[in-house]
Amino acid sequence: MSKVPKPVRLGFERDCVEIPLDLLHVTTPLPPGLKGTAKYLQIRSSVHAIGLVEPIVVTQNKELAGTFLVLDGRMRLEALRDLAAKTVLCLISTDDEGYTYNKRVNRLSTIQEHKMIVRAAERGVSVKRLSDALGISEDAIHQRFKLLNGVCNEAITLLADKPVPMGVFSSLRQMKPFRQIDVAQTMNNLNNYSLKLVFAMLQGSAPDQLVEEAAIKMRRSGMTETLQRLERELAAVQADTKLLEEGYGPANLQLVIIKTYIKSLLDNATVVRWLAKTRAEYLQQIQLIADIKQLPVQ
């Protein structure tokens, strides 16, 4: 006889609710001097310009009925207090022990950020308001609007969630679509999204793989100069690779040992609860370390 499956318990309340800021408490105060950092000022500017994008995650305070403990969103909460807000939209968690929030945060890639800015503009958000919210100049916003101009959809899809520097796209725009796809696949296969690699592949492209303007420029520069630049770039890439190879093995072994120990800590609900209440900033960093799948390739 088959067992009846146990019902799945929701980790959050179904609906977000507006909660007065006076009822929200943090287990540890923000570090001194944090309000002067660029990160905090950017969050404050964003909240002031376009409001709160994600709700604050809270849980019921068992020690003081009617109040809540903040699990995620301390800086956003502090920004709202600086802006004299009275209430905030909150997502209420039913579990304050086993869920690790920052571990499940996906950082925006360059392409995702571009699409977010374009979508905001399509909804009527002005360039000035976007500039204030993101803490960057209006010229930089205009550049992000045009980031993917001249890049084929297939290459965009391949790089959609990858940590690609903005300068890579200026090189891709000089290539024809098939060459863009080839370069994007190579970057994914090597897990290397550096400007050096893309520039070397651009210089190594045949004229018929480039758009007309780039092909004419390459012919004018002469093959000798092109080959010399290519050799210099490849030599630099090889030197970087050699340095990585020397330290990569031992560093990866250390990472596996550290991650195994940290995972054992995060699997212990008592330890996680203690860290959340007394050393929340340590818990966030430990969760980030536990989420590392491999050492980054510079």
What labels would you give this structure?
single chain, 298 residues, alpha/beta, Conserved hypothetical protein from pyrococcus furiosus pfu- 392566-001, ParB domain, five-stranded mixed β-sheet, 13 helices, 5 strands, 54% helix, 8% strand
Structural features, described:
The protein has 298 residues and is of the alpha/beta class. Among the domains are: 17-96, Conserved hypothetical protein from pyrococcus furiosus pfu- 392566-001, ParB domain, CATH 3.90.1530; 248-290. The protein contains 13 helices and five strands. The protein has helices at residues 38-50, 74-82, 110-122, 127-134, 138-145, 153-159, 167-172, 177-190, 195-203, 212-221, 223-266, 269-278, 280-290, and strands at residues 17-20, 24-25, 56-60, 68-72, 87-93. Strands 1-5-3-4-2 form a five-stranded mixed sheet, covered by helices on one side. β3 (56-60) and β4 (68-72) form a beta hairpin. α1 crosses α2 (74-82), α1 runs antiparallel to α4 (127-134) and α9 (195-203) runs antiparallel to α11 (223-266).
In short:
This protein has 298 residues and is an alpha/beta fold. It has 13 helices and 5 strands.
